Amino acid sequence: MPLLVRFLGTAASRPTVERGVSSLAIIREGQTMLFDCGEGTQRQMMRYGVSFAFEDLFITHTHSDHILGITGLIRTLSLQARTERLRVWTPRGAAKTLRQCISLGGERTTFPIDITELDSGATLSRGEYRIEAFPVEHGPSVSLGYALIEEERKGRFNPDLARELGIPEGPLWGRIHRGESITLDDGRVIPPSMLVGEPRRGRRIVLTGDTRPCAATIAAAQDADVLIHEATFADEEAQRALETGHSTAREAAEVARAAGARQLVLTHISARYSQNARELEREARQVFAATQVAKDGTEIEIPLTEELTTALSSPAV
Questions:
Q1: Are residues 257 and 174 both part of a single domain?
Q2: Which residue range forms the structural domain that includes residue 179?
Q3: How many CB atoms within 10 Å of residue 223?
Q4: Pairing state of beta strands 56-58 and 86-91?
Q5: In what helix (H) or strand (E) does residue 77 lie, and over which residues does it extend?
Q6: What's the CA angle centered on 219, arms 218 and 223, to 5 degrees?
Q7: Using one digit for the tens of pLDDT, what is the confidence trace for 233-252?
């Protein structure tokens, strides 16, 4: 079950020669979700092979470097004669601004667009996974981070033992794997615990949008497979990060360490580090070794984990 993160724009505030402004796509089993839509996002989607047949656009906040690409993207989708509904999810109070972006130019769309405002703590259930919105701290703006959380997966079925027990392959195997006990023709009762292992944890991707380091991100990113955190500045600009509601690379790494995340990816990079972000990476790795700085086009694949959910709930020693 492939789960990919593809970075479309990794610059802070304005595009540079090397980097577009904020946008990324998560592709799960062929389903694409877009997060933020800065200027030029549609071109980045073409360049990096992200499908226009996406159903969901999640907005972290309505600063211009996160939403100015919406107008052009909507126009292109209409020119392609799209008819499928587009769902736009945004923080509370931001719908009016997004409607203005969508209607700019006065051209009618060929497809319905639903805009839903979310409060922090909102959960969107999608069957095998869910999207959770959490509050982040980005000055006076109402801003959200998002976590994609897969539900736990069934434990592994032991086909060799099933055959040894004389259980014919077919519907009985399926019933056992679904958690049902079965009774064989000779009267033996086979409980699922005999053939099915413990449930396995699902994957978790957490992205912050623009934010200061905050407790809500640490909570959302507990044991995350990937934490995608803004890192606009290096240590030399720590005061400016504080004043503008952003984070340094070191602060992002401290969040990842506190959360017990498995991997940290830094994005939203200031223009001063656009060509060479090694300073950001170096400072972050002093705190959290499993760090990389994303570039436009960076792709991360998150493999399935074989870890058991019971192991995750065990107290630390």
A1: no
A2: 159-194
A3: 12
A4: parallel
A5: helix 70-79
A6: 80
A7: 999 999 999 999 999 999 99
Write down the pTM of the prediction: 0.88
Q: How far apart are CA 280 and CA 69, in angstroms?
A: 27
Burial 53-70 (b: 16+ CB within 10 A, else e): ebebbbbbbbbebbbbbb
Closest Cα to residue 256, out of 223, 282, 299?
A: 223
pLDDT of residue 308: 61
For the chain, what is the largest distance between any 2 Cα atoms, rounded to a whole number of angstroms?
Answer: 75
Indicate whether 36 and 52 sit together in one domain. yes
pLDDT tens by residue, 163-180: 989 998 899 988 988 889
Give me the residues paired with residue 267 across strands: 230
State which amino acid sits at residue 57.
Answer: L
Report long-range pairs for 194-198 (Cβ below 8 Å, ≥24 apart): 194/161, 194/165, 195/157, 195/158, 195/161, 195/162, 195/165, 195/167, 196/154, 196/155, 196/156, 196/157, 196/158, 197/155, 197/156, 197/158, 197/308, 198/155, 198/308, 198/309, 198/310
| Catalytic residue annotation | 65
Distance CA 102, CA 109 (A): 9
**How many domains does the structure of the chain reveal?**
2
- Domain-located, residue 317: no
